[in-house]
Amino acid sequence: VPQAQPRAEELSELYRELSQQPGLSTACLGPDLTTQYGGKYCTLYTEWSQRDLARAENIKFCRQYLIFHDGASIVYSGPAGTCSEIKDELLSRESPSGTLKAVLRKVPGKEKEKEKQFLEVWDQNRKVKSIDLTALDKHGSVYDDDQFGCLAWSHSETHLLYVAEKKRPKAESFFQSKVPEQSTSDEDMRHPKKEDAPIKGEQFVYHEDWGETLSTRSVPVLCVLDIEGNSISVLEGIPEHLSPGQAFWSPEDTGVVFVGWWHNPFRLGLRHCTNRRSALFYVDLTGARCELLSEDTRAVWSPRLSPDGCRIVYLENDVLGPHQQCSRLRMYDWYTKHTSTVLEAVPRQEWGAFPGIYCGTLPGMCWAADSRRILLDTAQRSLQDVFVVDTATGTTTSLTDDSPQGSWSVLTIDRDLLVARFSTPSCPPVLKVAVLPSAGHEAQTQWICLQDAAPVPGISWGIRPLQPPPEQQHPQYRDLDFDAIMMRPSEGPTAQKPPLVVMPHGGPHTVFTAGWMLYPAALCRAGFAVLLVNYRGSLGFGQDSVASLPGNVGTQDVRDVQFCVERVLQEETLDASRVALVGGSHGGFLACHLIGQFPDTYRACVVRNPVVNIASMVTTTDIPDWCLTETGLPYKPDALPDPAQWTEMLNKSPIRYVDRVRAPVLLMLGEDDRRVPPKQGLEYYRALKARGVPTRLLWYPGNNHALAGVEAEADGFMNMALWLLKHLQ
């Protein structure tokens, strides 16, 4: 490696510097206050996350800002005080009036006690309630995830709604010895309370769960805390075949609206899978009556109630098929019981038209004050933009067309004050605020930067559209194109002719948007050009692009990446003799395919939890439907693949080309990965070792599919960078 290349110490210092860039996670606007001079202002509460390498954990901190406005524009805005770390908060939510705040907190147990969960209520001066949920023992752990979890105030601010694991009966061995307690009477010994009596033979019963990142979620229940009465009740009336979540109070607090996911005949992985059968329901608090509000043959999520309590918008997909798709926006009218489609799926992206909805969720607060317009962010090819949607007419307007290009996300909107996050591949997240203009004038939105971030020097980037050659066109979906984001060093010894690192995304139905990404930025600063490929099948290009890939994995996506690599090597000043691959999950699948199908192009390869053999993955993953769908085969819960289908899965897998691999391969595997179990990577490792290909395997305990633990992420970057430097000499 040339002396100018960063050595391990320089790389670790580079990573330390860039990994300290904080991420902006949530924002909440307080109530409007009036100054003695008649001006209006409010506080903006924000939460950020940051990697702490010394503590090897992600920390959360909060910062507050003041926003002075006149209802039409922002007069002044700025920070109020400094940051402070948030410890042990799992969930928090301000009440509708802004005068109270609910906090779910974890508290370490004393000595041998287990960790406890407390639900706290704060007013503006003090903590007024602290309720030990663990001691009350009405349910298991409260869910703090964004799949099922919620913490919702009733409109009257007298009750709190949340989701928790259903309480399981105690179980004991058939041979359990009984040790009577001193305080136990003879009567209690002869007749223990039925609900407390442990059940024999139930100790080792298997409990299904919801898969990757949701392995402690099995049977969710909706729970209500009566704040004044300090009492908790578990809502009844929800059908047993449903798992409820994403709940909120109905208008007038008469009941609860929730999303219910079917778990018959068994649970499949739910994280990043917006294609699981689910529907919108209402359960009455008094009569325990459960009512279906949406169609029950679709997949729905992210229900949001309008400020006037009249309408609920939600997202909808077809069941099964690709795990992420172009979604429909639906609206349910609470009083007429009528459901309408506000926005349909978009077949093809066209500039100047709405690109379609590809967001994982709607913002928690997404309605404008008029209860007619909603705000959302969505991928538009390789950008992410903010749109306002008129739910009455279905018209859409971009709020970021005339703003800098990159990745925009809506954090919240309240009383038409809009808070967003913006970043680019060379600029970490910044905080932006605006006042939403009146209907018809939204394009005039004026964004103001509230918390800036210095752009990282030495990185230039651009988006390159690509049209596959005629012989690689899809017969049914012709003329589809795709993008790649190109990042390259703009200073330093390699800037003139850098080596190239090719990174296809995972999914496969996800997308790289032009936002801040730690690994690509750090690689670019280390002297590599980085090519982020949004091959056909990526989100943001229309539903036709998504639909073109199932049945063609291992060919269409592989050829798209290779075509893109060959094109940039021809047209840009890059070192074509030093090209490497880095990919995770389906990106790892593509990387392993490429080093086998095009061994002359690539000199090194780094893969994180890669799919290597679809045939051997189908029986071990939490998403067996993915294996069949992407292979182009129908999925049914009771179907067993026949020999021809096993062969098809194997033929589309990178393991088929392992005999042709020459590039040294570094594998990184998460021990707790439920999505692409580490046996996949081990299978490839052994096949490479048996063929004499230089290979190294890193095994990360306590890490799942994302390998997002602070220690694993940092160690993974260092090993990846050093592997690339070593083998791209």
UniProtKB/TrEMBL annotation:
Which residues fall in a compositionally biased region of kind Polar residues?
Answer: 174-183
Q: Where is this region: Disordered?
A: 173-196
Question: Which InterPro entries has this protein been placed in?
Answer: 6-blade_b-propeller_TolB-like, AARE_N, AB_hydrolase_fold, Peptidase_S9_cat
Q: Which PANTHER family match?
A: ACYLAMINO-ACID-RELEASING ENZYME, SERINE PEPTIDASE S9 FAMILY MEMBER
Pfam families tied to this protein = APEH_N, Peptidase_S9
Q: Which reaction does it catalyse?
A: Cleavage of an N-acetyl or N-formyl amino acid from the N-terminus of a polypeptide
Which EC number(s) are documented for this chain? 3.4.19.1
Query: What keywords are assigned to this protein?
Result: Cytoplasm, Hydrolase
Q: Where is the Peptidase S9 prolyl oligopeptidase catalytic domain?
A: 522-729
Q: How does it assemble?
A: Homotetramer.
Amino acid composition bias (Basic and acidic residues), ranges on this chain: 187-196
According to its UniProt entry, one GO biological process term is:
proteolysis
A molecular function annotated in GO for this UniProt entry is: omega peptidase activity
What's the protein here called?
Answer: Acylamino-acid-releasing enzyme
Describe the location of the Acylamino-acid-releasing enzyme N-terminal domain by residue ranges: 42-451
RNA-binding is among the record's keywords: no
Subcellular location(s): the record lists:
Cytoplasm
User: What is one GO cellular-component annotation here?
Assistant: cytoplasm
The primary site where this protein sits is cytoplasm
- What does the sequence similarity comment in the record state about its family? Belongs to the peptidase S9C family.
Group of enzyme by EC = hydrolase
Give yes or no: UniProt keyword Ion transport. Answer: no
- Organism, scientific name: Pycnonotus jocosus
